[in-house]
Amino acid sequence: MPGAAQAGPVSHAIFRVARLHRMIGGQLLRPLGLHLGQELVMMHLWERGPQRQTDLVRLLDSDAATMNRSIKRLENAGFVRRRPCPEDRRAVIIEPTPASQALRQKVEDFWAELEGATTSTLDPDQHAEALLCLQRIENSLARTAARHPAAGQPAQEPPTPEP
Predict the structure, then answer these.
(1) What are the two backbone dihedrals, phi and then psi, of residue 130, each rounded to the nearest 5 degrees?
(2) Angle, alpha carbons 97-22-51 (nearest 5°)
(3) How large is the angle between the packed helices 64-76 and 38-48, nearest 10 degrees?
(4) Which residue in 65, 77, 127, 133 sits closest to 102, CA to CA?
């Protein structure tokens, strides 16, 4: 019986790369006092300004419980604050605090360092080819996900394929 590496070599390689990427990302974020994914929340807030928590869930393709934990940790660290939404009393607005601005450059440096660790051995042509290949894989997986929605979610239109 073939192992995972023989039965699905590309899928197994993606799994291994994703695991290492997350591990290194977590190690690089730890000194900033952040967990993986929290930097994405902050980046959205810095770029787009205060957001409803439900919009952050949708924008980051998260679930409500995970987002709530992330927001609570960021709030405890002093990077965000919650306030009621003036238009919808049931909604909560998440906004970055002035203290979080000192973190912004560090998060940008984190992404640059992670990108370097990921692509440092690629020449410019290989870098472009890898990016194109990953975009094609993502599109293929998105089409499959759209045809096989999670339980209780309607099927979506598949994305338009890219070259």
Answers:
(1) -65, -45
(2) 30
(3) 80
(4) 77
User: What is the pLDDT confidence band of residue 156, given thresholds at 50, 70 and 90?
Assistant: low
Q: What is the pLDDT of residues 23-35, one digit of tens each?
A: 999 999 999 999 9
Over the stretch 114-155, which tens digit does the pLDDT of each residue have? 999 999 999 999 999 999 999 999 999 999 988 887 654 555
Of residues 76, 74, 71, the one with CA closest to residue 57: 71
Can you tell me the distance from the alpha carbon of 15 to that of 18, in angstroms, rounded to the nearest whole number? 5
Q: Taking the alpha carbons of 111, 59, 21, 12 in that order, is the dihedral positive or negative? A: negative
Spatial CB neighbours of 156, under 8 Å, sequence gap ≥ 6: 146, 149
Q: DSSP letter string over 90-128? A: T-EEEEE-GGGHHHHHHHHHHHHHHHHHHHTT--HHHHH
**Which residue do the tokens 């927001």 mark?**
71
> What would the two tokens of residue 111 be?
């992404």
Q: CB pairs under 8 A, 24+ apart, for 7-14?
A: 10/137, 14/137
Give the Cα separation of 156 and 149 in Å (integer).
8
Q: How is residue 78 written in tokens?
A: 């002093």
Question: Do 45 and 94 meet the contact criterion of CB atoms below 8 Å apart?
Answer: yes
